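Weekly structure sync - notes
Attendees: PM, LS, DV (DV joined late)
Agenda: review two folding runs queued last week.

Item 1: First target. Sequence and structure tokens pasted below for the record.
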Amino acid sequence: MSISRQNLTVVIVSFMSENVIHDCIQSIPEDIKIIVVDNSNNYLFKETIEKKYSNTTCILSENVGMGSGNNLGLRQVLTDFAFILNPDVILKEKTIDEIINASSILTSFGVIAPILDEENFPNFKPYNQKILSNIGSEPFKVKSVDGFAMLLNLKKINNLNNFENFKYFDENIFLYLENDDLCKRITDNNENIYIVPKSKIKHLGASAVDKKYAHQIELSRNWHWVWSKFYFNKKHYGFLNSLLTSLPTFFSAVIKYLFYFLFNKKKKEIYLHRAKGFLNAILGKKSFFRPTIKISDQENL
């Protein structure tokens, strides 16, 4: 089944993303339905977005993370296809049209993704590294795609194993590698993931959250990156593999924490959180860490 604009819904999970999300929404064709899941739980943001964009619905949520936020939006999707976007992604003029064109010639796919407009930073993991130096114009299969822009064939995925009850993304993962986990489960079911080179996007990168919360977000990123890396490898490859893969990161974090202990408070905190993420993962604790953002900060947005 090929994609059409009428059979496609865009899902965007936001968190303090007021500074970037408008450029994202404005780059999406107006005849495509958009669902924004706002993990900031900001009613003023919801009111502003829905008033400004007639094709957009905003769902308010506590900060449940990227995977759970995407699942929340996907439960409201009535179309066969859903385009997952980060709020700091901007579509090019023909991004959607090129994906639609590609879908009409592909026999079977679970995920299709556009390609990042910066060639030195591929938004996918290839089966063969040689493809990176010889990317043509035709769609090609990959192991996984980055989560900031991935189009899901919901009708196809719903018939695969381990995708019951709208649990497309693993909700144990708060941040990082939820897209890798989704892609691995899709390819483990012998379904295809494609990159469409003619479909291009711009990704601002680490800009989805207002920069005034930068340090708290950086602490969260470091905690969750290590936690998610351990969890992902443990889930798919076993505890021992996960331990051996993650230990170098842990020891590096401890050494850097000690190095910065006396003269750089922010760096010290970053590496402390990186080490804590590992320790909580190895103890089997949930991905509980959340950035500290005051309610008063949200009210002033």
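Item 2: Second target, run right after the first with the same settings.
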Amino acid sequence: MRRISEAREQVDAWRQIETRVHDLAQLQEMALAEDDAAVAGDVASETAALADQLEDMELSLALSGEYDRRNAILAIHAGAGGTDSQDWAQMLLRMYLRWCDKRGFKAGVIDLMPGEEAGIKSATVEVEGPNAFGYLRAERGVHRLVRISPFDAAHARHTSFALVEVMPEVESEAEVSLNPDDLRIDVFRASGHGGQNVQKNATAVRITHLPTGIVVSCQNERSQGRNKELALRVLEARLLEQELERIAEEQARLKGEHISAGWGNQIRSYVLHPYKMVKDHRTGFETSDAESVLDGELDPIIRAYQKATIGD
């Protein structure tokens, strides 16, 4: 039923575009016949907006991967660099939350570990929306920031790193099998924000998957049961991602290729000093409007990545 609903939404969207194209063609004919500059300007503006929408929809059709249409679990981890990297991780969290808001996606921070002085050490976000994983998988990898450090009294230039992970949400129990005997579940008091109930009672949940050593936690909900439910969802996503990575590595080995996913392989650089630029190293996409990117304007970067990887 969910797939039928998604297909119906796609068909309806294409039919709406067909209607808009027909209406614009009629307006264009009227503007030419009456030599009406105002109407012609409206037609040009509407045509440009329609072209952007068409590009979005065409790229959404290219999201044909097995998991592309699913919700996503996004995790951000500060790298080496102390307070600067933790502040950078928080900037990335804000960027992705802004992007979700612009797209109309529902985003909820389900776990957050604040830094000692500023920023965050890590954060986990659940993103719900059409093709959420398909879009956000463009963000997986190491993100590098170059700027004048606001935490350095000498105002020196610092380079900070943060790792972004993106995992598809598991939709059925058949995809990931969890044996209760393989889980160690600990409860503890939440730290940081969350309200009096969250901080005074042992509502936070940490789950350790003993066979793999994967540890996930959730502390942002007021209910211990809800935190456990969300933590299990993140654990399932991590186990699914681990299996996908294993399959990809095996395929690469059979092809005779191997690409390390280490910290040295940053996918994107954000430079705020001595000039302003955001460059995606995989596609060559560049923009000097770094502020807009950090304010959630990620669609042009994601589009460039999608175009570069169509058919992969």
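Discussion on item 2: The chain is about 45% helix and 25% strand.
Action: LS to circulate a short write-up before next sync.
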